[in-house]
Amino acid sequence: MHFVPNNTKRVLVVLIATLATSTANFAANEREAEHLAIVKQWLPFYRANLQLIFEYDAEDEDSDEVTSEQLHKAIDKAGPTVTIAEVQTAFETEPRYIGGYNPYKWKTWMGRYESNAGRFVFDLKKEKRWERTTKRVGSFKASPSEYGLSFGNGDLVIHPDLKTGSAQDHTFAPPSNSSVLTGQSGEFLVKNLKVYRVSKEDEALAYAPPHPLARSYNQGPSPSYGASPNPVPDHSGFLFETIAALLSLSLFAALFRRNS
Questions:
Q1: Neighbours of 100 (CB within 10 A)
Q2: Which residues, including other chains, have CB under 8 Å from residue 21's CB and lie 6 or more apart?
Q3: Residue ranges per domain, the chain?
Q4: How far is CA 128 from CA 86, 100, 180, 186, 187, in A?
Q5: Structure confidence at residue 26 (pLDDT)
Q6: Which residues of the chain have pLDDT under 50?
Q7: Could you tell me if 101 and 221 are in contact, meaning their C-beta atoms sit under 8 angstroms apart?
Q8: Smallest Cα–Cα separation from 102: which of 113, 89, 86?
């Protein structure tokens, strides 16, 4: 009977754990590269950099300390973004990889976040996207601590706790009680959430995100160049902000004349 010294056992355990972690990380990186390559085909740029500016990982021991305020601090001024979420629904054993593309800024105006942001949502396993079928309308009042992410009128929602979400067809697919993204499951758990800044190749270093996990991915030429999503007219936010600015200037001018 042969005995293995305790020191040797500990070394073996460490080696096995390290190997398992390296294998898992390699698989995760490969999956991430595949997902970004799929999304890249749908973006309107011939060449695009995808820069990771925010990540929430439910398995990270510090995940409870990640807040929606940190999310919005990282993404609100980043411009166009792609969001990819690994989610677990109640009726499936395998996770789903879903998300959305917002060609505009995640922004607020007088304390209001746009509620219907996004040009399309997608399912990466199916390699399929759904574009908006209605114009973006309205907004709702919320501070960064009260608002996660919302694509469409409830089509894909990441709740402020970043741990949960919901999906129901309304804006990107004909309204129904189910979802093209999650099937019959309206609610889901968020296992991982990544937000990438989308920029043209020569704009890669123009934005310095306040999030420590930022990485850049140059996805190269799109194989579907020239087949970008059909633009959806959406100037409601700009028009509202312009009118509000003009009214503010008029009010200031009136007050100035009264005090003169």
A1: 26
A2: none
A3: 6-247
A4: 16, 11, 10, 19, 21
A5: 52
A6: 19-22, 24, 214, 216-238, 240
A7: no
A8: 113
Q: List beta partners, residue 101.
A: 82, 120
Q: What pLDDT does residue 61 have? A: 87
DSSP 200-232: EGGGTTS---S-TT-EEEE--S-TTTT-PPPP-
pLDDT digits (tens, 9 = 90+) for 150-182: 998 889 999 999 999 999 999 899 999 999 999
Note the Cα 239 to chain centre separation in Å. Answer: 25
The pLDDT of residue 142: 76
pLDDT at 97: 97
Asked if 185 and 90 count as a contact pair (C-beta separation under 8 A), the reply is yes
